[in-house]
Every structure is written in C-alpha cells, then in structure tokens.
Amino acid sequence: MTQAEAFRIDVSERALLDLRDRLARTRWPDEVADAGWDYGVPLSFLKDLVTYWQERFDWRSTEQTLNSFHHFRARIEGLEVHFVHERGRGPEPMPLILTHGWPGSFLELLPLVPLLTDPASQGGSSEDAFDVVIPSLPGYGFSERPPRRGMLSARIASMWNGLMTDVLGYESYGAHGGDIGSRVTTRLGQHHADRVVGIHITAVEDPPLGPDSPPLTQAESEFLRLRDAWYEAEGGYSHIQRTKPQTLAYGLSDSPAGLAAWILEKYRTWSDCAGDVERRFGRDWLLTAATLYWVTETIPSSMRLYFERRRDLEPFAAGERIAAPAGVSLFPNELVAESHPPREWVERLYDLRHFARMPRGGHFPALEEPALLADELRSFFRPLRARPAYSARTV
Predict the structure, then answer these.
(1) Most buried by CB count within 10 Å: which residue of 128, 176, 361, 385?
(2) Does a structural domain hold residue 231?
C-alpha cells in the first residue's frame, strides 16, 4: 500500500523576489501599429499585466486560499504526485478523479469541488455527492517532473488507477477530464474498466479507421476538414511543443513575461470570453496560473507531454471500443469550436451513454461554467452509481 502525505503550498520568498526582479527587468519587443491581437498578445496588454504582477499581485493571499483545500503527495510508479482530495457530504459519495489539461493545472478544477462534494448546499440532492480527487499531471505544478521519456496517456492512466485504488483504497470510481485529461480519462476507460464505472470527457480521441470501418458520413468529413483548417490557423503552439519543446523551454523558463504571454493568450483564444480575457477570469486568477508554472519551473515538463503524445506507441486497434460507459459534453468554444465532432464520430470509439452540446463555455469549463459542468457530471454518473459500495482509506 502506498502512503499519501499531507502537503502544504509554501513557495519560498526567494523565488517570489526573483520573480519580481525578473519582471522589473523585462526587455520588451516592438510591435507594428494597430496590431491588436492579430499577431499575438499586444504589447500594451502584457506591459500592464506585468506591472500589476510585479507591484500588486499577492501570491501569499492566494496561497492561503489554496491551502484551504486538502493537498497530498504520494509516490506512484516512481514519481511524486500531488493531488487534492475532498470528501463528499452524502449517504454514499461516488469517488471521482478529475484530470486537467494544458495550459491548465489543478487550479482550474477547484471551482467544481463545492458543487460536487456538497450538492445539497447548492439546492441539489446529497445522493449526487462525490468524493473529489484532483491530481496534477506529471510535470505540472507540484507533481514531480518525469526525468525520462515515455510519459504516455496510458501510463498516466495507470498511475491514476494506482492513486485511486492503492493509495486511496477505492474499489471503483468515475473519471472526468478535458484536453490532455480527456486522453488520460479515455485510457482509464480502456485499460481499467474493471474499476472505472464510467468516463466523462469534454474532448474525444480519434477512432481507428481502416478498410473495414464504416465510411465517413458527410458530417464526419466536414468535421475533419474544419479541424485541419483550425490547426493550420491556430495550431502553431502544438506543433512546436510536440516537435521541439526543449528549444522553446529556454525562453519561457528565463522570462516570466514570456511565459505569461505563451499561456495566457490561450485563455483568451480558447475561452468563451468574447475577447475580454480579464473580465472572464479576473487578473488575479490569470496571474495565479502563470505564477504556479513559474515557481514550480514546470513549463518545460508540461510541454513535453505533447512530444510524448506524438510518439504514443499505443494506438487503438481496428474496431476497438472503449469498454467503460462514456459521457461527452461539448462546450462551444472548445478549441475547434466550429468543428465539434458529430455524434456518429464519437460512437465509433466510445460506448456513448450521454451526449450534450452546451450553450456556453470553452476549453476551461470547470473554470468558466462550473455549474453547467457539475450538472453534466451529476446527470451522467447518476445511473452508474449501482456499482459495489465505495470505500476509501483515511489519508
């Protein structure tokens, strides 16, 4: 049995002083007149944000708020994994592991905690309560950075299954994820269906297509065309992260302003914010996200998961379907907004029990629309709660 140890966030004062010093010494580039966001993050926007980060942003207050959650670390398959574990309030809370993506972190999933652990306090039923587990992906935040190749989605899924069963002692559990978290959650449903009662995702994996596969429908063909067009227009970040992440890492590891520009532009482009990213998320939250990457020095290791993904050695077999029941909720500004997959594309790989197109929200639904996402999770998992009684160790 692997033991979990309580963990407290306590960033050194030296790291915070170094951050402020680097922000003060930022060397700014020029830009063309009237560029707006067409070329990327505008100079005026980032200068204003960096000034606030240097002079007014209060990490210590943020740290105190974050430490109101129950944090732990445990060694799983040779790596220290950070996770939040919050108990549900109800007659038999279902264990549920939530996995984030990039450029996210455990932070974006925290708004779901009160909605899922204590639904009765939100006007719902205590019978829908969950025990919530939110791990940080390997190489993200306070999880250890993998020192070697091979951190594939299937391996992370194996680690998550070990966390839920060996560390926390749950007999069965549900899983949810978005972006990279969707891939990990899919692999949980593929390899650990004996323990996973169901998977809920906000992005789907491509099914295997071969000579014996049913021909693509018109909607599927259009989906693939639009997706390719989106990657041509917006996929530069992905291409460099899955081909030469180490080259990019030097600049982002040395300049907090550069790091903020790289990740915060995605919060604007990929969210349902109508171009006003600060209004949608708040300046302090955006800087909390950037500071977490900076003080943990994890932007290089976070990007390397893209490199590993490109070399994933476990493609789905022809005709393979994910064994665990699946729910899919698609948010309208989730990356390839205009080309969400049609239902028949999803059904090629998943045992689809729930499929919904949401009225609003984007790539960060737990942060943007936590109530909508919580409702989707409760609805999907409600009929799957008949598995054997859950149990968990006290950690």
Answers:
(1) 176
(2) yes
Catalytic member of 306, 340, 350, 354: 306
Residue 100 bears catalytic tag: no
Distance CA 67, CA 320 (A): 43
Domain that residue 354 falls in? 63-208+216-384
Q: Among 98, 20, 109, which residue's Cα sits nearest to residue 59?
A: 20
Structural domains in the chain (count): 1
Give exposure, 245-257, as e/b (b: 16+ Cβ within 10 Å): beebbeebbebbb
Query: Does residue 179 carry a catalytic annotation?
Result: yes
Tell me which of 71, 85, 192, 363 is the catalytic residue: 363
CATH code for the domain of 230 = 3.40.50.1820
For residue 194, what pLDDT band results from cuts at 50, 70 and 90? very high
Whether pLDDT at 313 is above 80: no
Over the stretch 225-246, which tens digit does the pLDDT of each residue have? 999 999 899 999 999 999 999 9
> 310 pLDDT band (50/70/90 cuts)?
confident
The answer to whether residue 9 sits within a structural domain is: no
